[in-house]
């Protein structure tokens, strides 16, 4: 992942774009890209989405997610593994298995 | 990153959740988490967001992004590096340096 | 508002689009348009957004919001006024005045 | 609609919240609420969403949409009817009937 983040930062710095990359606008950008990804599935069944569009937009989502993690000094692996641990308590297997319910409705 | 994806899939499979994880609903979930991350900055200056909330929600964003990449058989590093290459053409340094303009307004 | 909803339904029915307009995809569309509106402000100060883009995208947001209200048989005025009443309890003036805090942090 | 907007502004002004309601943060709020509405449908078929949640979140979407229209001095009916007209050109009945394709793919 460091290779990805370094490539993203090099691209950003070549264009002198760090001035725009405060965490609020990075989150805005991430949300916008997540919606562009969603558009691949609009009016369609999951299996009918254009795979090229999914690939393109998911790449954009990851780009801003990695930049945001870097801007906020967060290690991606650490925060995801920590979240999985917390989710193990919110969604115990005995209650959550086979259920799509949110934790406060289990 | 494989370690992250394996941990996410183990958590999912322990709970028999793969039945819900079609790409359309995964994109929905990703978009919803991106908005929860955005909420950390609502009504606030970038520097005033709660760092714990950013960490929590960014972890959720990455979780669904990795699950979606896996569901669509995409390699995260490959697709991001490929997108950076395409962006080098859309945003040549000579035109894009120091500018926040979208590529079709350069 | 009935005039707006009638015009939207006429446009939809001329194109035989009701088949696509289930509430889930209408909500997807609404979310996508809300993000396109957000893009008007990306990397910018609030006052620097393009007013034409705001007008265009906000019109799209309202279009899908009205179609969704109609699809779910909801009266827009009733639901908004009811929500304001509920919010008066969640955000009593004595606690909420001048504060951007969410109700569970008051 | 004026009755709705007046009620929203009265609620806002009683709490001295206009200081937070710049168009960028209003768009953020609108996008966040659109995602909360989307959550009603997550992992579910369209017909299985909780109608109370749809009502609640759609009311929030409309609240911020109306506040944004007012902040940007836009007449909701005018902008939606104007957008329908533009869409009649982007989506001529002869090409768009029965099709979910985006205008640039017709």
From TrEMBL, chains A, B, C, D:
Transmembrane segments: none annotated. GO terms for molecular function: nucleoside triphosphate diphosphatase activity. It comes from the Bacteria. GO terms for biological process: nucleoside triphosphate catabolic process. SUPFAM superfamilies: all-alpha NTP pyrophosphatases (SSF101386). Keywords: Hydrolase. Coiled coil: none annotated. This is MazG nucleotide pyrophosphohydrolase. It comes from Pseudohongiella spirulinae. The lineage of its organism: Bacteria, Pseudomonadati, Pseudomonadota, Gammaproteobacteria, Pseudomonadales.
